[in-house]
Amino acid sequence: MKKIYLFALALLGVVTLYAQKNITLEDIWKDYTFRPKAISEIRSLADGEHYCILTRFGIEEYEYSTGKKIGYYIDFSTLGFDKNTVVSDYSISNDNEKVLLATNSQYIYRHSFVADYYLYNTKDKSIKKITDKKIRLAEFSPNNDKIAYVFENNLYCLDLNTNKTSQITFDGKYNHIINGTTDWVYEEEFAITKGFFWNNKGDKIAYYRFDESEIREYDMTMFPVDSTYPVNYKYKYPKAGEDNSMVDIYVYDLNTNKNTKLNISDNDYQDRYYPRMQWTMEDNSLCVTFLNRHQNDYKLYLVDVNTLQKQVIFEDKDECYIEQPDFVTFLKDKKNVIVRSERNGYQNLYMVNIENKKVTPITNGNYDVDKICYIDETKKQIYFTAAKSFSYNRELLRINFNGKKLEQLSNKDVQGIYTADFSKNGKYYISSFSNVTIPTIYTINDNKGKTLVTLENNEDLDKKLGEYDIEDKEFDSFVNENGDTLYYWIIKPTNMQEGKKYPVLFYVYGGPGSQEVLNSQSRFLDYMWFRMLSEKGYIVACVDGRGTGMRGAKFKKCTYLNLGKIEVEDQISAAKYFGSLPFVDKSRIGIFGWSYGGYMSSLCITKGHEYYKTAIAVAPVTNWRSYDNVYTERFMRTPQENASGYDDNCPIHYANLLEGNYLLIHGTADDNVHYQNTMNWTTELIKNNKQFLQFSYPDKNHGIYGGNTRYHLYTMMTNFILKNL
Which single residue of 556, 586, 636, 657 has CA 20 to 30 Å from 348? Predict the structure, then answer.
């Protein structure tokens, strides 16, 4: 008997020794146990044979061909910075002799920030501060002898030879006039903050001037803990149907110190946007992108800044809308420009002849091109990523200018998301790759796709994940009532029991052109939270319904003029489909979403209350009339033109339908989706005597992060799910 007892103890010890761990919220949001290693701020040096990366300790230089570290391009410990100084960004001059360092950054909105900028000389190792003020967007001129920057909405230029600073504009004023950068809505919806551009010769600067003086202000109350009284913060925010800033484009000539206003388009200020501008290969030729207010008419204007003559070299029109414009590529032959367009129903590449305006397809596939990675003008080849195999993958491809010899350079045997950051000479690229089972791998490849060096494979994270009893995402699809195939991922509970039915939590975003069903490690910490829930017996799933991206224009634009209707129909279809599966408890289906996803989850628990027991909405839009005009009007036109489209699918009109368990969360300092959305929504729910939980995070923006915030937020959501689903 004693021997049996001892054997049992020994066996128990072995089982305990090899028992796998369970994920905790502390692992995810306090200790960041699962944070993958990354390589950040990669910059190719001018020779194309070396590159730099930014670390906490310095800017490190490496060799492309071997991946070996050459040394520190800049060792921060030698600069005399105090221990609290953090370098958040850097740029290297074209001659590799100077470096701009951005330190102690303070963010304004999602992308914009002010910082202390320092100029470092790589030859004599000297460093000096550009100015005692916090400035924005400091940038070298192409010939390396000047730095332009923005301070308090005015544009300045520092001459490095004379050490003299010239003020280019003088009328900048907060909430009135902006020079050299952009207003809130351009930054948020056109993803552009730098509003000035050097020409190739370095003797002219084109820049935006925004007059936002007549735009209505949004007032946010802040609650600093060290202040007896709250503080009011006001900024310009044009809501749907309301006036935009009056935007003009100027060119400053450094030789004559003269500013010249360009007359680009005859359209009224309120019927046009200029979301991009860039110099061509000619020193005096500026390209300006035009969009009408409906964002379905796109033009490329070429302006001779000396004669002020202009011409349209390319135009795209669409029955719905043009996808957000990006910068185009002017070739060194000075005759052609490469653009992206959905004119054949998919996002493809085209060659446009500047002289005769002829548009020639380069790619012509029934798949969407994602990004142009590199253009080799000598060999007349383009490297790009695209969703060629499935919408949830990205392949790295190469094609000739004439549309022939399409080749896949990324691994054909291992699907996932590939990116490519090319060297200046195009001989190498640094690739990142991940899929749902493989944490991000960084490699150096030659331009034929051959892997030369593995820089980081996140092996430690992979081993760490092996200690936990977790399931990976699986991909599958179903057909909705409309006959459309919808892709989804699913994470099943560990050690599922045959015959047992499990609750389901859907994660949703669903906005136009978005994607959450991706074969990658995107939103990795959320991925770990979903896996934690699966350990607790929940199925977690995500469905990309109609309106989402990388499946062609028809699939994406079917939600035009009526946001929320079709998307919610597809989420309800998903609930029905999953409810029919033998291992799903259809009485315990919930949904969670953030931003547009919060809008979706709020509609699902109201319009779809028969199918959803529980919903969590974080920072939701609850009335499109309260959101910004560039985003909303792109998909809905104005409220004056499309009142029913704005009202028919807003949660505030369905408060009477709320049933089940609902948790509403918002940051009070959300400059994007205003806290007003939650307050108005709360008012309607109270009017209809609906019981729900609502939580506010003081002074937190749309991301709701900082300090202990994420840990607190995910603890609250986890407890809500465990109790109510």
Answer: 636
Phi/psi zone of residue 497: left (φ > 0), alpha (ψ -120 to 50 degrees), beta? beta
Q: Give me the count of residues in the chain.
A: 725
Stretch (H or E) spanning 220: strand 217-222
Over residues 482-497, the pLDDT tens digits come to: 999 999 999 999 889 9
pLDDT for 19: 54
Distance of CA 172 to the CA centre of its chain: 29
Extract the tokens encoding 86.
């953090």
Residue the block writes with tokens 């007549």:
214
- Rounded distance, CA 578 to CA 591, Å? 13
CA distances from 213 to 150, 184, 234, 235, 646 (A): 19, 13, 13, 11, 27
**In the structure encoding, which two tokens stand for residue 427, read together?**
């001989």
Beta strand 285-291 pairing with 485-491: unpaired
pLDDT 10s digits, 499-523: 999 999 999 999 999 999 999 988 8
Average pLDDT value for residue range 312-317: 96
User: Is there a contact between 237 and 216 (Cβ–Cβ < 8 Å)?
Assistant: yes
Residue 433, classed as helix, strand or coil, is: strand
State how far the alpha carbon of 90 is from the alpha carbons of 73, 74, 77, 95, 484, in Å: 12, 11, 16, 15, 47
* Residue 455 CB neighbours (<10 A): 17
Strand partners, 705: none
SS3 573: helix
Q: How far apart are CA 721 and CA 725, in angstroms?
A: 5
pLDDT at 9 over 50: no
Q: Report in angstroms the alpha-carbon separations of 184 from 188, 191, 239.
A: 6, 10, 11
Give residue 704's Cα distance to chain centre: 16
HEC per residue, 141-189: CCCCCEEEEEECCEEEEEECCCCEEEECCCCCECCCEEECECCHHHHHH
Please report the beta strands in 227-276, taking only residues with DSSP state E, as ranges in sequence order: 231-236, 246-253, 258-262
**Within the chain, how many helices (H) and strands (E) appear?**
12, 43
Helix (H) or strand (E) holding 105: strand 98-107
Instruction: Give the phi and the psi of residue 555 in degrees, each rounded to 5.
Output: -65, -40
Q: Who has greater pLDDT, 663 or 80?
A: 663
Amino acid at 312: V
Backbone angles phi, psi at 190, to 5 degrees: -105, 0
